[in-house]
Amino acid sequence: MIEITGLKKSFGNLKVLEDINVTINDGEIYGLVGRSGAGKSTLLRCINGLENYDEGSLSVNGIEVKDLSKKEGRVFRKNIGMIFQHFSLLERRTVYDNIALPMRCWKYSKTHIDKRVKELVELVGIPEKIHDKPRVLSGGQKQRVAIARALAMESRILLCDEATSALDPKTTQSILSLLLKINEQFKITMVVVTHQMSVVKDLCDRISILEEGRLASTGRVEDVFLNQPPALKRLLGEDEFILPDDGVNIKIILSTAISGGAVISRLSRQLDTDILLVGAHMERYKDKLLGTLIINVSKNKAPAVMNYFTQNKLPWEILDSENNRNEAFSSHPEEKLEEAALRALA
Amino acid sequence: MDWQMYQVYMDKIIMPAFFTTLKMLAISIALGTILGFLLAMVLTLTDEKGLYPQKWVYGILDFIVNTIRSFPFIILMVAIVPFTRLIAGTSIGERAAIVPLTIVAAPFIARVIDNSMKEVDRQLIEAARSFGASNLQIIFRVILVEAVPSIISGLTLASVSVLSATAMAGAIGAGGLGAVALTYGYQNFNNEIMFITVVMLIVLVQIIQVSGDMIYRRLK
Q1: Residues B96/B122, Cβ–Cβ less than 8 Å
Q2: Can you give the CATH number for the domain in which A313 is found?
Q3: Domain tally, chain A
């Protein structure tokens, strides 16, 4: 378990990290997201002691990283693998030698190294490349070598620093599924620094959004994307929907598990009314398909529409447009719409 | 020029001088590489961004390296005659010439190796630190491994410039092709010998460069 409390760090006058509190459980895939310069890579480097921190505490399985001596730090890092954006392989050595490097540094026996390297190339799916040099490998293959190297010392934690940022979307997906496979198979804790939303959605269990060295938002990936906190909106750079002033704007949260199909067209047929689609947003979170939908209906049809949603157990709420303030009104007045949707899902 | 005269020139003057030059070059490059390598190690380690930053050590070494490199060779050679005598026991001949040649080669080679080592990707070094490699392991198993081709091309460059320094050393009695060109070509107006020496120097430089490039490509 990685426990970070009240962590602070500055370079001179520049505060890089301020009051960071994060707990990462064993076997979890945790995302650190944010724009470049937000401090996410620095935070990641604090975890394996490549960077120091000024104040606060960071403990990995009960070991306070700050208190380690130089020698202890090396032994400590041995069990924490790390992969990088530009793969960081020895260009002049073969795949075999690259994967063997950490074990050679720690003076493992030749037979152990040989056995382990062969296991690892099988695991990452490039056994036929074992005697090639990185020069002839594709980006994805290079990252596979780097993953194998990071796992060579039987690491329990894997730190990924923008590991897929230099790869094309298809290769990114294949690396992500490899990481998921490794996480499932060996229950390795992963801390993933990224600015790619696809990585967050397909890989991470929980995330923290960092803004200028501060934690702006933290939570399960589904919750964060459903709640759309301001930090996430700023990160995505998305505009909010502009709502029409006429009629009533209703927001619903959809999931295939709740609605079981084409809700809006059924609604339109059943109530024999026109429905204006104002905005929609569908996303896949791991295995669940969730979406936000904002529709506009005429005032006199609104009660029937709300009634229809309630009957179909779809959480809904009425949105205010800029010039048209409605009474706060929703299917679940005592809780937030997103919470209602998640409860309906569960 | 008749053939017999040419034979005499070659056997008695040019070939011995050629081997003297080769010997001076080889020994001073070898010694210069050893010294330069050690200097480069210290420079790379103690650099501000190095693995073991030591501002003062780096500053002083850096200053010395730059000072020696700013001397014109012929001046340096004359200026350090007492030191040369101390080390080699004499200030004349190839043995004596090796001292200033090494002193000039070492900082040059140190710079070359230092630059090659600094060019190694910083993230690769960070990766090595991330699995707990020690500073020595990072230097020998990572940095040097990656820097070898670039060090080789730097050594090629150093060899060519030390070769030109050996010719200059000829001016104050070091022997070798440079001395032959000066004595026979410049002072005796013997154009044949002058011409042959120049051709041999050109061929020598070409051989050094071509073989250096070949090794570079093989290692890259």
Answers
A1: no
A2: 3.30.70.260
A3: 2
What is the full DSSP assignment across A213-227?
A: TEEEEEEEHHHHHHH
- Beta strands A63-64 and A55-60 are antiparallel
**What distance in Å separates the CA atoms of residue B71 and residue A159, rounded to the nearest whole number?**
50
Domain final residue, candidates A217, A234, A251: A234
**A159/B130 touch (CB, cutoff 8 Å), yes or no:** yes
Domain residues for A276?
243-345
How much is the ipTM here?
Answer: 0.80
Q: Is the pTM higher than 0.90?
A: no
DSSP string, A108-165: --HHHHHHHHHHHHHHTT-GGGTTS-GGGS-HHHHHHHHHHHHHTT--SEEEEESTTT
Q: Residue A84 and residue B127: Cβ atoms within 8 Å?
A: yes
Among B115, B133, B111, which Cα is nearest to B124's? B133
Nearest-CA distance from B158 to chain A in Å? 24
Domains and CATH numbers, chain B: 3-219 (1.10.3720.10)
Both A192 and A54 in one domain: the answer is yes
In B144-173, the residues whose Cβ lies within 8 Å of chain A are 145-146, 148-149
Q: Report strand pairing: A214-220 vs A63-64.
A: unpaired
CB contact under 8 A, A149 and B133: no
Say whether both A172 and A30 belong to one domain.
Answer: yes
Give me the tens of pLDDT residue by residue for chain B, a chain 220 residues long.
578 888 888 888 888 889 999 999 999 999 999 999 999 999 988 988 888 888 999 999 999 999 988 888 888 888 888 998 998 888 888 888 899 999 999 999 999 999 999 999 989 999 999 999 998 899 999 999 999 999 999 999 999 999 989 888 887 777 888 888 888 888 888 888 888 888 989 999 999 999 999 999 988 8
